Amino acid sequence: MTHPQQQAILAAAAIHKRFGALVVLDAVDFTMAADEAVGIVGPNGAGKTTLLSVLAGAFPPSSGTVSFKGGDVTALPATQRCRLGLVRTHQVPKPFSGMTTFENVFVAASHGAGLGRDEAYEEALGSLKLCGMLGVANRRAETLGLLDRKRLELARALAARPTLLLLDEIGGGLTDGEASELVDTIKELRRRKIGIVWIEHIVHILLQVAERLICMDAGKIIADGAPQAVMADPEVVRAYLGGGPK
Amino acid sequence: MSAPATMPVIERGTATSRTAAMAVAVIIALLAIAPQFLSAGAVDRMTALFIYVILAAMWNALAGFGGLVSVGQQVFFGLGAYFAIRLADAGLNPFLALFASGFVVGVVSIPLSLFMLRLRNGEFAIGMWVIAALTHLLVNLDRLVQGETGTSLISLNVYDAGTRRATIYWLALASMTALLAILFGLLRGSTGAAIRAIRDNEDAAASVGVRVTGTKRLLFVLAAFGIGIAGALWLATSITFQPKTYFNVQWTAYMIFMVLVGGIGTFEGAILGALVFFLIETWFGGTGVWYLVGLGATAVVFSLFLPRGLWGTIEERFGLRLLPVGYRVRLAAASADDDATPQQTTKHQEKA
């Protein structure tokens, strides 16, 4: 591996995930350093979201281990991983529909980041501001459109004060203008030294932030390295454009 | 977007809600002295109302705020009465037994929560009903209860009727006030925000650091405790304990009725719903089967035309919040607020 173990903030080793007979993750090894921004691409069904869920603790892997900040977190549920600083967003937004935008974010600040009331207010307002959502702070989340729901996913995850943020397709369906706002927000997070793992189909957005790119296909990592090199990799081209059976 | 010069302010109350809080205090004070002026029958009816309010508020907290819809809450109502009988039989002062019983019910609900809270949605709802039926049968086995024959809280008979009636009234009023205050404090705090988050999306709540199981357990146990107290108070008003009256699913049906009519998920709604139920019962309770038909019809009409209940509709239409548990953001720069009543609300860094 190009990234030595002692620097790794997040390491997944020999991850397998099966749903019944279906193998979704097949011996995935993944390691990253605290200050990295890693992009993950791959065709639909490659296992990207499943990998993210295993990393975040939404469900355990069938086998393999996940460690974060030097400790084995394989058995820790999502709640504890979030409190350690490993926070995700959801591909299909999961807002707290009956609560206002502010309240959604406040929950993360007071429970995920463990802040007292006033600090939690400040943190929640700060992340709403960063994501451009102060104007809809009092709207019930169920009244928000898809774009705002995606923003809310990001704002809520941020309010939990992550050291490492796992983003799942938050750029899908954005116009160019909206996408560049999103990129600006993510770049701001990079300035705050927050590590990023970002799954995204819209590669040109991803490449503005990612310093390293991983391509997955059929439950395996098929390429890992500098973005341009990965995009030019024949395996990657074949996974995307289809080269017939291997 | 120009950045506002100062940070936005978080509001918890409005001018209306501060008035409402004072009004609540006045109403409770008036209720406390009311027995002096009321007939014996009216005192008994008011006691029943306080018990209904407890039941509605507890079911609303569980289902409306926590998303835990149960049709077996009568288990705690029945156990509240049953443990009061048992404790009084063991020699405890009957009035003390009522509250000790509530605590016992709370303790019993902890092991119950270990497996019941693993169930979700419909499974939980029906599972609770099964637990209630099972508990009913177990209580019937107690020789003190003598099966469906039942027994009485006889030690209460040493007090003369007037003292007993007034004492139970005050105990019911005090219990209702204390339980509502505890619930309000809980729902208004950051735990309350976590409870609502779990209701709306359990997975997402876990992903932002909410302790899902622990928070649900807290709510479950509190509701069991409150409903246990209500059951014990009901026993005190009626003296007799027949298991099938207390472990009857009608109690949960009443709770659901009160909460749906009043407005599920709003603190004020449960209280209003209890009042509506109380009035319907007072006026039409004597009409036998038509009373039940009327209750059912009312519930259907509400779920069709006012799905948010009376208070939910009032809140939506007029932006009125008397006992708010939520958070409003007031932007420092004027305008951007899309909310209905910016003039009515006053700035204040949360103090209440």
Descriptive account of the structure:
The complex is a heterodimer of chains A (246) and B (352). Chain A is α/β, with parallel strands linked by helices and 246 residues long. Chain A has helices spanning 48-56, 78-84, 101-112, 117-130, 146-159, 176-191, 203-206, 227-232, 234-241, and strands at 8-19, 22-33, 37-41, 63-68, 71-72, 86-88, 164-168, 195-199, 212-217, 220-225. In chain A, strand 7, helix 6 and strand 8 (195-199) form a beta-alpha-beta unit. The model of chain B is unreliable at 334-352 (pLDDT under 50). Chain B is built from 14 helices and 4 strands. With 352 residues, chain B is an all-alpha fold. Chain B has a domain at 38-249: ABC transporter involved in vitamin B12 uptake, BtuC, CATH 1.10.3470. The interface between A and B is large, with 46 and 34 residues.
Write the layout of secondary structure elements.
The complex is a heterodimer of chains A (246) and B (352).
Chain A: E1 8-19, E2 22-33, E3 37-41, H1 48-56, E4 63-68, E5 71-72, H2 78-84, E6 86-88, H3 101-112, H4 117-130, H5 146-159, E7 164-168, H6 176-191, E8 195-199, H7 203-206, E9 212-217, E10 220-225, H8 227-232, H9 234-241
Helix pairs in contact in A: 3-4, 3-5, 4-5
Chain B: E1 9-11, H1 15-33, H2 40-65, H3 74-89, H4 94-116, H5 121-140, E2 151-152, H6 161-188, H7 190-200, H8 202-207, H9 212-238, E3 240-241, H10 243-246, H11 250-262, H12 267-284, H13 289-305, H14 309-318, E4 328-330
Antiparallel strand pairs in B: 1-4, 2-3
